[in-house]
Amino acid sequence: MASTPSPHTTHLHSLISSSINHNKPSNLSFFHTSSNPSSFKLIHSFSTSFSSTISNVLKTADVSLSRDLNGVVSTPKPTILVSEKLGEAGLDLLRSFADVDCSYDLSPQDLCAKISLCDALIVRSGTKVTREVFEAAQGRIKVVGRAGVGIDNVDLQAATEFGCLVVNAPTANTIAAAEHGIALLTSMARNVAQADASMKAGKWLRSKYVGVSVVGKTLAVMGFGKVGSEVARRAKGLGMHVIAHDPYAPADRARAVGVDLVSFEQAIRTADFISLHMPLTPATNKVFNDDTFAKMKKGVRLINVARGGVIDEDALVRALDSGIVAQAALDVFTVEPPPKDSKLVQHENVTVTPHLGASTKEAQEGVAIEIAEAVVGALNGELSATAVNAPMVPPEVLSELAPYVVLAEKLGRLAVQLVTGGSGIQSVKVVYKSARDPDSLDTRLLRAMVTKGIIEPISDTIINLVNADFSAKQKGLRISEERIIVDSSPEYPVESIQVQISNVQSKFASALLENGNISIEGKVKYGIPHLTRVGPFSVDVSLEGNLILCKQVDQPGMIGKVGNILGESNVNVSFMSVGRTVKRKHAIMAIGVDEEPDKDTQKKIGEVSAVEEFVFLKL
């Protein structure tokens, strides 16, 4: 007698089937590719093999069903491996659903040996979940849960390729981290740690440890997300004047807390205390460096409970020695634990703690419950708002949309780099021009990639088809769409994509339309994404490498002048395009470069008399 598939297995089978047959995103993961045309073929083969792998796993699950003594089919419990300590409340929840194996301090070899017997893995920051781990799992592991926010210890690319969902627990630590930030701020201001160490050494140095009051002082909160906003609320209760910088924070949400949103420059220039709550991204890596410290008010005090890498630690030591920074209180470091002989850790004006931001009993229990619920939900086939890799799109949809996916992300990435000022991005409009009927064009993946391009460069949120709309809403970002039918070949799903950002200032005024919106537009040509319009100006450049946009007086010799400046600085030019609205009036020169020009080179470009404005953009 044939065994009957379990409801869970049947649900997953139908999920895959409906996804493939109806071109709807499923509960599995999509694949993001580069702009290389050859990679588009890889998508199809990957997606096909991925679907096959999942189907094989499900078939194995069907066969593995067991019977009790009465011949009734029963489904074996999944096995969850917990490789680092987790709160009991979370463990209890897991044990009610699965067989739980708590094996701590596993070597990489031991982890690879165990993982093929597990359906899920829960880690903190100490376990490295590498490609080798996913290979050793032989397709069995379905979800990896990170008990905390950061997922840099999990190979997301490998997880996606092997069909494994990755979830984290981003909210439970919020209050604990905010409280620790305030604790560091006040203890630093009153020299608590230094005075304590002095007394324990048998000294009584009241005059040496005279502190400063926080009442009436200006606190700049750099990053007004969950933790930053909670720090701001508590600082207001201490009588501080609070300002904040965050390009995505809605001004009305900040005003509700009594906080003024300002530009990065204004924040660091006017603050008495600076509290860091920004993610570590390429854009924020060592953003606090010699140049940044030089712009600060002398005697500023710095608190960091976010990510160590946002500070150039050598530059901070120099700022402390010179007196620009009077004191620093740090919970995070570029390398953890930091070297024992670290000049920063040993500095007499620095208060340090060993990454204790989330270390309260309440936070640990909250994280345990949050990650347990996410993992159990994933094993039950449910979508999770905390998924950090995305559900799979059917192969035929991926194959068709692949170059447009790349285009959508790069347009979002370009658009956000054109924004300046402290008002924050609140409204984005995406316009699709297509010959197809609007009802036959599923733009959810494209919208997700525009959102990804806008949010990811300065956020630690990883955007995918699962969490794109949720993440945008959490950041107060309204993304609307418009579909325009054009007379072109319906063979191609999209003729062009336009991204507009409204109610913001632009660092490149020529990118503004008459309605004041930043606007850029692109097309796919010969399988390669191209930028075709900046504001009202037509251009035609491949979206590869990096980009310099120059607004200039339309006159002979401009290409040569700018090209010579770049050549003298050994900056390789990959392409160049000039677009204009009226002959001999103004033009936009778009220059593709392989390297980022240094400040002196950019200064020379700006000093060319006919260049009215320019901007460097990373793709």
From TrEMBL:
Record's keyword annotation contains Plastid: yes
PROSITE patterns attached to this UniProt entry: ACT (PS51671), D_2_HYDROXYACID_DH_1 (PS00065), D_2_HYDROXYACID_DH_2 (PS00670), D_2_HYDROXYACID_DH_3 (PS00671)
Gene3D superfamilies in the cross-refs: 3.30.70.260, D-3-phosphoglycerate dehydrogenase, domain 3, NAD(P)-binding Rossmann-like Domain
Pathway: Amino-acid biosynthesis; L-serine biosynthesis; L-serine from 3-phospho-D-glycerate: step 1/3
Keywords assigned: Amino-acid biosynthesis, Chloroplast, NAD, Oxidoreductase, Plastid, Serine biosynthesis, Transit peptide
Species whose genome carries this gene: Anisodus acutangulus
Organism phylogeny: Eukaryota, Viridiplantae, Streptophyta, Embryophyta, Tracheophyta
EC numbers for this chain: 1.1.1.95
Domain of life: Eukaryota
GO biological process: L-serine biosynthetic process
GO CC field: chloroplast stroma
Catalyzed chemical reaction(s): (2R)-3-phosphoglycerate + NAD(+) = 3-phosphooxypyruvate + NADH + H(+)
Compartments, as annotated in UniProt: Plastid, Chloroplast
Stored InterPro entries: ACT-like_dom_sf, ACT_dom, ASB_dom_sf, D-isomer_2_OHA_DH_cat_dom, D-isomer_DH_CS, D-isomer_DH_CS1, D-isomer_DH_NAD-bd, NAD(P)-bd_dom_sf
GO molecular function: NAD binding; phosphoglycerate dehydrogenase activity
Family according to the record: Belongs to the D-isomer specific 2-hydroxyacid dehydrogenase family.
Domain ACT: 547-619
NCBIfam families for the chain: PGDH
Transmembrane regions: none
Official protein name in the record: D-3-phosphoglycerate dehydrogenase
